[in-house]
Amino acid sequence: MRVVTRFAPSPTGELHVGGARTALFNWLFARHHGGTFILRIEDTDAGRSTPENVAVIFQGMEWLGLDWDTEPQFQTARLALYDKRIETLIATGKAYRCDCTKDRLDAIRAAQTAASEPIRYDRHCRDLAVPADRPHVVRFICPDSGDCGFEDVVHGPIKFDAGVMDDFVLRRTDGLPTYNYAVVVDDHDMAISHVIRGDDHIANTPRQVLLYRAFGWETPIFGHIPMILGADKAKLSKRHGATSVMKYSEDGYLPEAMINFLARLGWSHGDQELFTRDELVQFFDFDHVQKTDAVFDVQKLQWMNGMYIRERLTADALVDRLLPLWTAAGCDVSGYDRPRLAKVVATMQQRANTLVDLARDSAFYFAADIRPTDEDRAKTYTPEALDHLGALLAALTPLTTWDHTGLEAAFRTLSEARAVKPGVIIGPARLAMTGRKNSPGMWEMAEAMGRKRTLDRLNAAITAERPA
Ligand code: GLU
Question: Going by CATH, does the domain composed of 75-225 fall within 4.10.400.10?
Answer without folding.
Answer: no
